[in-house]
Amino acid sequence: MFTENERVLSSSSMDESVLDEKTRVERYDSQSWESLKTNPLYEDLVEFKDVFPETVPCELPKDKGIRHEVELKPGSKYCVMKQWPLPREQVLAIDKFFADRLAAGHVRESTSPHSSPTFCVRKATGGWWIVHAFNKLNAATVPAQTPIPRKDVIIDGMSKSTIFSSMDLMDGFRQILMRERDIPYTAVSTPSGMLWEWLVMPQGLSNAPATFNRCVSHLLRPVREFAPSYFDDVFIHSRAMDGKSDVEVHRYHVRQVLTIMRKHQLYANLKKCTFAASEIPLLGCIVGKNGVRPDTEKIKSITDWPVPVDVRGLRKILGLVAYLHKCSRNYAEMTVHLSRLLKKNERWLWNAECQRSFDGIKQSLIKSPVRSGQAISCGL
């Protein structure tokens, strides 16, 4: 649902130095059931091993109480885009994909007046991603107004916690049912002449991330005090209380979350999870018992960023910096000259003041201190 650059990745149980030094690939590779054997939650996790499958079970999911809805703007007509021809290798990949989806109960043959084309994108590891071009349907869809969880609220709620876990939920697209009357909108054509429609929420619909976020928030509402969620990420935090150690409380909290996930068929990617750690990556920051600091991977991507040559490039870097702007001293003052270049009809002129601002932002992030959760979150 989200790009890899948006992911917050981690390994099992890490201290601060390990989190700083490990790359994303290394974190992926190091996480396994074997590596978790020394983790205090190992036995609990093994008990809920079905929540961490290698692949999501290929079956029609349960009704989770939230279905994906498609509301078209008034006056919208049939959303139709013509299917274009594809190489035989891709046609065969698409046909196999839909044969598997049909067997799982995810799709059915369609007679819908709507139709969006299907195409392939090469995977970095080989093979094909099957993608639908829902451009016309998305343009005609009323945008969802589901509120996005606030990063500052999530961090503020963790400010007194001393032990943390995070879980990355898998394949949210096909884990939510479509509202029955909206199924015809999801009709997709294939190069071999078939027309299918989705019974589950497919990838590519404009409001799909909002629906998944709403569904996860709805299901985890009973535990949101210690397990807030942000789209497909769930963060669990605990501290010692009522005579119990922080590990004992955390074990109870994690088991509650896993019980809900098992009941409602929510699955997590083990390689992208952290369990019983003193700190976890969270939305561009590292949040732990000692406070909040910027994620070094995020900082490195900013400090390595080349000088922008146009408005588009400047927007990209400022968008990335905005994730961590409270870690940057005097952020508003430093971006005055850069923000000026974003104004409508402003002539692009990258001068010495812009360069000083650009360099100053990078340096302030490098030197940013560790702050308490309360200090950083309330300022966002």
From TrEMBL:
PROSITE patterns, alphabetized: RT_POL
Q: Which residues form the Reverse transcriptase domain?
A: 102-287
Which CDD domains does the UniProt record give? RT_LTR
Q: Which residues cross the membrane?
A: none
* Positions in coiled-coil regions: none
Q: Which domain of life is it from?
A: Eukaryota
Q: Which Pfam families match?
A: RVT_1 (PF00078)
Question: InterPro entries under this entry?
Answer: DNA/RNA_pol_sf (IPR043502), Rev_trsase/Diguanyl_cyclase (IPR043128), RNA-dir_DNA_polymerase (IPR053134), RT_dom (IPR000477)
* Name of the protein in question: Reverse transcriptase domain-containing protein
Organism for this UniProt entry: Peronospora matthiolae
Write the lineage as a comma-separated list: Eukaryota, Sar, Stramenopiles, Oomycota, Peronosporomycetes
